[in-house]
Amino acid sequence: xxGNKCVEFLQWALPQMRMRWPGxxxxxxxxxxxxxxxIEELHLAGLSHYKTYLADHREEWKKLESFCRISISxxxxxxxxxxxxxxxxxxxxxxxxxxxxxRCWCCGCAAGEEPYTLxxxxxxxxxxxxxxxxxxxxxxxxxxxxxxxxxxxxxxxxSIKELPAALxxxxxIRQNKQYLLKSAYRDSVRxxxxxxxxxxxxxxxxxxxxxxxxxxxxxxxxxxxxxEKILTRLVxxxxxxxxxxxxxxxxxxxxxxWSEGDRIYRKIR
Length: 269
Ligand SMILES: C[S@@+](CC[C@H](N)C(=O)[O-])C[C@H]1O[C@@H](n2cnc3c(N)ncnc32)[C@H](O)[C@@H]1O
Fold this sequence. Notes:
The protein is α/β, with parallel strands linked by helices. The protein is 45% helix and 20% strand. The protein has two domains: 3-67, no CATH class; 79-267, Rossmann fold (3-Layer(aba) Sandwich), CATH 3.40.50.150.
């Protein structure tokens, strides 16, 4: 299967699943490899036959959609984002939250790298200044096996390579080539299997991270619909964090940039 043919196929198929091609440009090889494997498994002659197969077997679209789930993540991904969360956002949220805990939601949490990074920052840098407060993190993902991995808390070296050395040393136990996150950091995170297109945790949250999922892969109309729902779960004064390549689908007076380049927004009304 040639790369060009697969790109053409994706440009045809993605909009039918309410997804957008630009989000997949960089990861297309991974998706194309999965599709090629499926074509082989079905003993089909190529992509045009797969198109016919999709037309004849509506349930195959679910399979195709699963090939389009990208699970790349790592601890401390986009260093400047977590630095800003640590120095500014979490501090302000902890000061202003009129509750015992700062409530966070990580949407599309992969194997826990992102919610656990928040937990690490909290316990190391914020907790000493806010001893009476806690952090509560709800982390959701649609893929059961990712959540399973998250609960185990075992990571390869590539997942933790961006973590500052002090955090790595304090929070992980090395086991051969793997790193095990200590349970103290895992206890603040609750994982739920949810497809964000169908369900979201109720909230309200002081901080929502929705990075490299909704605003990367979904089409603009779906992004807009989900943004509305996300915003109803964010308190006024709370922060919404997107991935660095993500864009809001429309401008809204409910949000103002908090850290422009890092795509961190504050809800102002
Ligand atoms: C590219 S990863 C991003 C992980 C993390 N947010 C980060 O920025 O490092 C996208 C994650 O979204 C999950 N995902 C894909 N489609 C989803 C959906 N419809 N609902 C919830 N999670 C989904 C994938 O399983 C994957 O773990």
